[in-house]
Design a protein that fits this description.
single chain, Immunoglobulin-like, 5-stranded antiparallel sheet, binds [4Cu:2S] cluster, binds dinuclear copper ion
Length: 609
């Protein structure tokens, strides 16, 4: 991918700016404009949170978009919305779901429910190449190219419903992505036989090849699988299960006092695949992961656990039960003994501190503290992991691992700190993704914004900085240092390598199939007029020949319900039936030039005799 990158000389502008800033602060200090105490104070609990006009943010935030089906890119700390990446939804701004290329990926579906987006890793931190996101509605997994911030692949996860927790391998690099099915379903779901009986249903842990975007295998377990995580050694993946009961109603799912954290052993899975210990269902290798098979162990976790997150030092997995006021700390270095049968799965639990009501998700500051979202208490609770472990071994009356509590507004689902899902967790900012936020913003009707609150966690006490309204419904996010993501400027190679790229304007006819090869180069399309017959199946292939990095052209056919955008050097296509005779203006929808309004051509559809 390196050949698409900007030359170093252009990229170093940020470096030059930084040097300039450092130098000016030094000068300011000498002449007394910036006082030393203010700099010291800044070191305490007052992070830079304002981003002034012309300045750039320090972090990219990638937020899932819930049932909007998209992914959003925000800048932090400003929390400004920078981009909406269409994934499982139709977006007329970009033409996602309208072009042939995107429609082929979407497989005829226009509904999606994105919950968890996570980046690709190298050696425990982000490599800035890809982002994966789940679709809980239609059971798909999408990959987004971070260099273009566009969806690049969508695959169907077979045999499952409620595709939920999704996590890439963190070490040594992302070769696998695991995806959990939150709902238990019949594996052969054809409406035949005993499909009414829930005891025959299974949960599925799907392993996807991160490079080829193909399902490698599926591990079937008796329980449901909710959130997902992976370790920092490339050995295990984790899944919470709140329905260990195998129930089909809410009361059945709440029957037991403890459910499970299921840990999958990747070496054991690889060996089972090698030995052929699987059955093939619809071309997919399906392994049996029930207790006793050695592929997974089941650690008992208090009632109906939801989140599982791995501490940035790689030592602990932390899971919490929605209906228990506790978080369970699992020592990852004990898992090998549990798999070997030397200790019981429950002996991997090294702490279970009481932290508050409705604990869901946990994030980290890289300084040994955990921050757990409390849905019922509407709080973020900060607690010290080592202290919790010490108190579990030697309880002390009245002592607690809790360090601080912050009221948020109001019900919090996920919470995520800057770089917290990497070994480079930097403990600066935390986002609390709140729901049901009632009165925090002007009333805009029943579907009100959610409230993503920004919190400064650089000091001992948490400090609420900002409310940020968001459209339905970010569940989760990751916060990535900006130097780890460098979107590319497309260059001519993109055009040269595209099999459909248009170099010469032409109209080809094959029976009633018409292919129009069209260039766009501000402020003109390569042809001023295209003539077809009523009933023709028409394909327009459009290549943008402009070289300026932000010079995108639109392609809208009046009355034909078609609009998409094509970026510099990109090629996109669309196919439709010319079923409306007459003259229709095709025009550029994306402002590109002083003569943008003149950038149009005529589509002449000749009526059948
Ligand atoms: S789930 Cu939404 S608050 Cu899908 Cu990650 Cu926990
Ligand atoms: Cu091209 Cu506007
Ligand atoms: Ca349960």
């Amino acid at each position: 991918m390196s050949k698409y990158w900007l030359p170093k000389t252009l990229r170093s502008r940020r470096g030059i700016l930084f040097t300039f800033l450092t130098a000016s602060i030094a000068t300011a200090l000498v002449v007394g404009i910036v006082s030393v105490p203010s700099l010291v104070e800044a070191k305490k609990n007052k992070l830079r949170t304002e981003v002034h006009p012309g300045e750039l943010d320090d972090y990219y935030g990638f937020f899932s978009g819930g049932h909007s089906g998209e992914v959003r890119v925000l800048g932090l700390p400003s929390m400004r919305l920078l981009k909406r990446i269409a994934v499982f939804n139709v977006d007329t701004g970009s033409g996602w779901g309208i072009t042939n290329e995107s429609k082929a990926m979407m497989g005829g579906m226009i509904v999606g429910d994105t919950h968890h987006c996570h980046g690709s890793y190298k050696d425990g931190t982000y490599d800035g190449k890809y982002l994966w996101v789940n679709d809980k509605a239609n059971n798909r997994l999408a990959r987004i190219r971070l260099d273009l911030m566009e969806t690049d692949s969508i695959i169907k996860i077979p045999h499952v419903q409620g595709t939920h927790g999704t996590f890439p391998q963190r070490y040594p690099q992302t070769d696998w992505v695991v995806v959990n099915s939150e709902f238990r379903t019949p594996v052969d779901n054809e409406g035949k036989g005993n499909f009414e009986d829930p005891s025959t249903y299974g949960g599925v842990h799907t392993i996807v090849d991160a490079h080829k975007m193909e399902v490698i295998a599926q591990v079937i377990v008796p329980c449901n699988l909710d959130l997902a995580g992976t370790d920092y050694q490339g050995k295990y993946s984790f899944a919470t299960s709140y329905n260990s009961e195998g129930g089909a109603t809410i009361s059945q799912m709440l029957a037991r006092d403890r459910d499970w954290l299921v840990v999958f052993n990747w070496d054991a899975i690889k060996q089972a695949l090698k030995k052929g210990s699987y059955k093939v269902v619809d071309g997919v290798k399906m392994l049996d992961g029930k207790p006793g098979t050695g592929l997974a162990i089941y650690i008992p976790i208090p009632k109906n656990p939801h989140g599982v997150n791995i501490s940035p030092d790689g030592k602990y997995a932390i899971a919490s039960g929605k209906v228990s006021p506790t978080a369970s700390v699992i020592a990852i270095d004990k898992l090998a003994d549990a798999f070997a049968g030397k200790i019981k799965p429950k002996d991997c639990i090294v702490a279970e501190p009481q932290i508050g009501l409705g604990p869901l998700h946990t994030t980290f500051d890289g300084r040994g503290n955990a921050y757990t979202s409390l849905f019922i208490d509407s709080q973020i609770v900060k607690w010290n992991i080592q202290k919790a472990i010490d108190l579990y071994q030697h309880p002390k009356e009245g002592d607690t691992a809790v360090v601080d509590r912050l009221d948020i507004h109001y019900q919090v689902g996920h919470t995520m700190a800057s770089m917290a899902e990497t070994k480079e967790a930097d403990g600066k900012f935390l986002v609390s993704l709140n729901k049901i936020s009632k009165d925090r913003f002007l009333n805009v009707g029943p579907l009100k914004p959610e409230n993503d609150q920004l919190v400064d966690i650089s000091g001992k006490k948490m400090r609420l900085i900002e409310d940020e309204p968001s459209y339905v419904e970010p569940h989760d996010c990751i916060i990535v240092r900006r130097d780890l993501v460098e979107p590319h400027v497309l260059d001519r190679a993109v055009m040269d390598e595209h099999p459909l790229a248009v170099h010469k304007n032409a109209i080809e006819r094959d029976g009633n199939k018409v292919t129009v090869h069209l260039t766009a180069n501000a402020p003109v399309y390569g042809m001023q007029k295209v003539e077809v017959n009523e009933g023709d199946e028409v394909t327009f292939i459009v290549t943008n020949h402009d070289e300026i990095p932000d010079l995108s052209h639109g392609f809208c056919i009046s009355e034909y319900n078609i609009n998409f955008v094509v970026g510099p050097f990109q090629t996109k296509s669309v196919t439709f039936t010319a079923d409306k005779p007459g003259m229709y203006w095709i025009y550029c929808t994306n402002f590109c030039h002083a003569l943008h309004l003149e950038m149009r051509l005529r589509l002449l559809v000749k009526a059948k005799a």
